[in-house]
User: Fold Polyketide cyclase from Micromonospora echinofusca.
Amino acid sequence: MIDVNHQISAVRRRVGTRVLEAGEARVVTVSQTYDAPVEDVWDACTSADRIARWFLPVTGDLRLHGRYQLQGNAGGVVERCDPPRSFAATWEYGGDVSWIEVRLTDEPDGRTRFELEHVAHVDDDRWTEFGPGAVGVGWDMGLLGLAGYFGTGKSVTPETAAAWVGSDQGREFMTLSSLRWAEASVAAGTDPQQARAAADRTTAAYTGTPAP
Assistant:
């Protein structure tokens, strides 16, 4: 069993913007500290065998300028790699291209802070409809998988992950994650009522529960 409230509280979430050559982009950032040294966390995030144990099966060439593909999800190209501290890649899904960067930082007692930043051009209508939770809830589930992997050493299969997502506990997790992303959106300047409405729609999309 997963301590949903503990995991939700263990993650830091930020929302912001950045100006790129193609215009302003939205930025969501998630981070969590894990009880493992930097080298171990790096290997868990860059080894195809270990990525499949906590996230999704991945194929391709996991090195600088190589192309990767996550099973049933995004693919892209590794654009920068600075082991064991950071890597950056494109995130290509549904015809859209965005960018991710993972950064690892030493923490006291041999622990490591994992931080992931996702930068995307999102039109105002889609952002208003779903807000940062549209991608944020998914990344929360990724950090949950990594926490479980380091906490128990057990692998997560796509089948068990799908069963958990459809469970009462899975729906509770996604609902709380969506609410926390609404709070991060408000902290970034979004109107609270608008942020909560977007969170309700995001929760409905992830859980299959009609929005209020």
Observations:
- The domain at 4-207 is CATH 3.30.530.20 (Alpha-D-Glucose-1,6-Bisphosphate; Chain A, domain 4).
